[in-house]
TrEMBL record:
<protein>
    <recommendedName>
        <fullName>Thioesterase domain-containing protein</fullName>
    </recommendedName>
</protein>
<dbReference type="GO" id="GO:0047617">
    <property type="term" value="F:fatty acyl-CoA hydrolase activity"/>
</dbReference>
<keyword id="KW-0378">Hydrolase</keyword>
<dbReference type="InterPro" id="IPR029069">
    <property type="entry name" value="HotDog_dom_sf"/>
</dbReference>
<dbReference type="InterPro" id="IPR006684">
    <property type="entry name" value="YbgC/YbaW"/>
</dbReference>
<dbReference type="Pfam" id="PF13279">
    <property type="entry name" value="4HBT_2"/>
</dbReference>
<comment type="similarity">
    <text>Belongs to the 4-hydroxybenzoyl-CoA thioesterase family.</text>
</comment>
<dbReference type="InterPro" id="IPR050563">
    <property type="entry name" value="4-hydroxybenzoyl-CoA_TE"/>
</dbReference>
Amino acid sequence: MATHTITVNIRFCETDALGHVSNTSYFIYLEEARIRMFEELGYGSNIKDWCFILASAKCDFVNQAFFGQRLKIETNVARIGNKSFQFVHRILDEKTGTLIALGEATTVYFNFQTQKSEPIPEYLRKQLERYLISELNEVTKKE
């Protein structure tokens, strides 16, 4: 099983009045991780080539993060259905490995012309299977 990994530097504008990273910023980090993974799977910057729509997203906040920290975001696939698949993310402090947050996102293969979901093509299914975990608790361990 492969794990897709990116790093993110926390910017001052991503913090809130309490001094820690705002809850809304985590969803931006998770989106960035998914976009970079799609790029690795061969989807370039031409958004017209993309056939994905986000059906749901969730984030569990485990520890605080602060301006100046560098975060590592690990992404795997937890489930591949007929028309949708589920990403799971771990956000860690890059230096210490401390778990900061856990994320999930369900993505639907979608035809924007017909405005309907479609079965995931076999070539994409094969690519996603490289990142497929055998058990969800492999990623969601709260250390």
